[in-house]
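Re: the 468-residue chain
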Amino acid sequence: MNRKEHTNRSTDIPSQGLPESPELERAVLGALLLEPAYLPEVRSLLTGETFADPVNRRIYEAMLALEERGKSTDLSSVASALRAEPGNSVPPAYLAGLSIEVGSGVNCVAHARQLKDTETRRRLVLFGYELAARAMSDPDGVLDWATTEVSAIGDRAVYTDDLRPLGAVLKDSLAMLEARCRAYDSGQSVGVTTGLRSLDACTGGWRGGQLVVVAGRPGMGKSAAALHFMASAARQGAPVCFFSLEMRDTQLSDRLLIGRSRVDAARYRAGSITSDDWSSLERVEAELAALPVSISDRPSASMAHIRAQCRRMHRRGKCGMAVIDYLQLLDGDDRQPSREREVANMSRAAKQLAKELDIPVIILAQLSRRVEERPDKTPLLSDLRESGAIEQDADLVLFIMRPEYYGISTVETRRYGAVSSLGVGRFIIAKQRDGRVGEICFRYNQSVTGISDYDGPDEPDASTSGPF
């Protein structure tokens, strides 16, 4: 949304005008003409759009262009560059008067920060009037649009504490190491537990700021794994927000109840429940209801909507981890030339959410059919559907595979050798930014509604054990 579009719509502009400061604009430009050495620092704060006056904007953009070419940005060089531009509308006398007005460049950066604050307020005013117009004429999707716009304005704002001394960062690193040592000595997971001992040993659990991608072909058990991770984190005390774009919330709770209890999935769905089944289900329902979990089954959610929900819940202390099922069902926040570009933007937004709230974000993703064209069916990072950006943004990529599904009769394990594939799945750690890759085995029940640790080939059938 640019200023020119709004100046042509008088109903969009408040009677007192937009927040602008011609004096600050001239002060910054005059200081830069006197002291060109300040330009790199000012450039990190201001863009051409910061200047509301088109003449001032043109002067500043000419300075940036000269700097990019390694040229001097003094008064003479800028004047020559402007004269060489077609349709130049900057009077030479105006340019010369800028440096005379300030007399010194000592306050250049301070004035640049004030000017950036003015730009932020101007954008917020324009946003407010655009929001009112959209809400009156086209209310569909206005909340998601508003969230995206506010985030964009916030991202462009200047923060004085973006840069930290190395000493302070090192101190934080040692404090985090001390916390990990305490967790290790007490036998606990360093981060939020995955609910699988072998996976915790490989990853240290989920960490704040981490984007975890759990990917697999349909029918591999992605949703069962996501529910397991959700419940395990909640049992540890981490509040979880679960966003399901594929299944209704009651379908998720059905899977939780079946996976945790010993009730047969077919009898549960048919309604052929015994009194013992009811007792088991009521016990499990009481356990699960106490967990700090919030579920959204909105079918057409976007990352902007999810980020807004997570921010709101985080402020209330109810979002310590987010789970999204699944990436390819998300709506794009804006029109992109390709679906690959849309998915890349969503993946990036998920990573930004993890960093902003300092929480683990687990997002499920589909794999392409190329997996099934290979004899061993083992997924590769190149199988992630629709965008290589998923692989780039993720801190951890987990592939989930059930060899039994493909008629593979045995699974090779490091400790037990070749074992029967019946009820045994594989988690393949294909990428881990801060650790090693590898794989672990897990057990799943007959209905693929619950998973648990794999403790050896002689373990009782997984259908009789709970997943959490």
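The chain has three domains: 3-156, 164-190, 194-464.
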